[in-house]
Write a structure and sequence with these properties.
It contains ten helices and six strands; from the N terminus they run βαβααβααβααααββα. The chain has 234 residues and is mainly alpha-helical. The protein has a three-stranded parallel sheet, with helices on both faces. Strands 4-5-6 form a three-stranded parallel sheet, with helices on both faces. Helix 1 packs across helix 10, helix 5 crosses helix 10 and helix 8 runs antiparallel to helix 9.
């Protein structure tokens, strides 16, 4: 297996999910005592969140680019960004970086299309839901994403930043997320994208009334496919 470079810490809670999913996936595929070859750069999310809130995406892009270059210099053979929202900066992040980059929206869209579905509901941060960088990528793949209403978008965003990114799990927030998912299903969504890497802390196939695509799990499975395909034949 080639080394997977993970640019994470946005938040630390989701990066821990990536670490667990990649190692579990490597063990399931390769057996025995195998685990994933990983190089992780985990950033301080407080600084990133301040840049997001201030709209200083240019500074955030420079920061991600510096870290992506460091991961390549450290020996990563491919790169993944362990957050949906910061894929807004995928292009500036990869400037001057030559290793392959696995875009989370592309991996998710491919999984949805492979399942024969096309109208995903999207629950994510306000940045991911309301800006075009993510939904345009889904549309380019032939999907018709559906967003929650304004109040539901605000609730989804608040729970992510005020609770999930801080490792706070609340039953009332889980119920609120379940209600939002139900409303998307009633409007015609045929599946649900857990479009923030923390949303899977509350929602899963057992409490959502339609197929669920957890972007952490989808992203990690695709990364393992790439890492094993990049590995030389024995």
């Amino acid at each position: 297996m080639k080394t997977i470079g993970i640019l994470g810490g946005m938040s630390a809670a989701s990066t821990a999910l990536y670490y667990e999913a990649l190692n579990r996936g490597a063990r399931e595929r390769l057996g025995g005592l195998h685990s994933a070859e990983l190089l992780i750069r985990s950033l301080d999310f407080a600084g990133i969140e301040r840049m997001q809130a201030a709209g200083d995406w240019e500074a955030a892009g420079r920061l991600l680019n510096r870290e992506a270059r460091a991961l390549q210099a450290g020996g990563a053979a491919l790169l993944m960004l362990a957050t949906n929202t910061m894929h807004k900066l995928a292009e500036p992040m990869m400037a001057g970086v030559s290793i392959p980059f696995l875009h989370i929206a592309d991996a998710t869209a491919a999984a949805i299309r492979a399942a024969g579905l096309s109208r995903p509901g999207l629950m994510a941060t306000a940045y991911t839901m309301e800006q075009s960088f993510y939904t345009d990528r889904l549309r380019a793949a032939g999907l018709s994403p559906m967003l929650p209403g304004p109040e539901d978008r605000a609730t989804t965003h608040r729970i992510i930043y005020d609770e999930l990114c801080r490792d706070v799990i609340r039953d009332d927030s889980r119920a609120a997320y379940e209600d939002i998912a139900m409303r998307l299903a009633k409007r015609g969504a045929d599946c649900l994208i857990l479009g923030c890497t923390e949303v899977g802390m509350l929602l899963h196939a057992g409490n959502v009334p339609m197929p669920v695509f957890d972007t952490v799990q989808v992203h990690c499975a695709a990364a393992l496919d790439m890492a094993l395909d990049l590995a030389p034949a024995e």
